[in-house]
Amino acid sequence: MTAPKTALILVDVINSFFLEGQPNFYPAALDVLGPLHDLLAAARAGGHVVVHAVEQHYPEFDDYEFKKLPRHHMEGALDAAFFGEFRPEGPREIVTRKRRFSAFFATDLALFLHEQRMERVIIAGVKTNVCIRASAQDAFAHGFDVVVPREATNSNRPHLAEASLEDIDRYIGRVVPLADALEMLA
Fold it and tell me: Which residues form the Isochorismatase-like domain (predicted)?
């Protein structure tokens, strides 16, 4: 039996969450950088598709999301830029720009992954209870096996992160230890 074709989706690994002084920075976000690095290195070494899903809004235009949140992540702004080493490299990596929490909503990500015959997605990044959960829900709705490595996501609201991981594991996919996700990418 062959292993399912697997893609790694890194969600919002951008300055806003990881660079101190940026609008959505929270200190615990730094705890996921090591696991994210390990996942990215394993995906690259294994020749897997890597998706960098980043929230970016159009400068000078209204966005429905701004009814709930202040203006943020404008295309070309410091807070919307890739954090550190987490930028696309090579032909097996793509960028999906999103304007909502989910990497799948109103993007061509599901179409792209189906065209590449992907069966499983490993979703990691920030924030568990918002963008990770929304992306996992939509990946499931599009027919992908969803895996979320526990150590590779968190939130500034830990109780909501835990509740989201419980729901993901119960209804949407699997929440696994980092080592299991790394093995899927080996």
Answer: 6-177
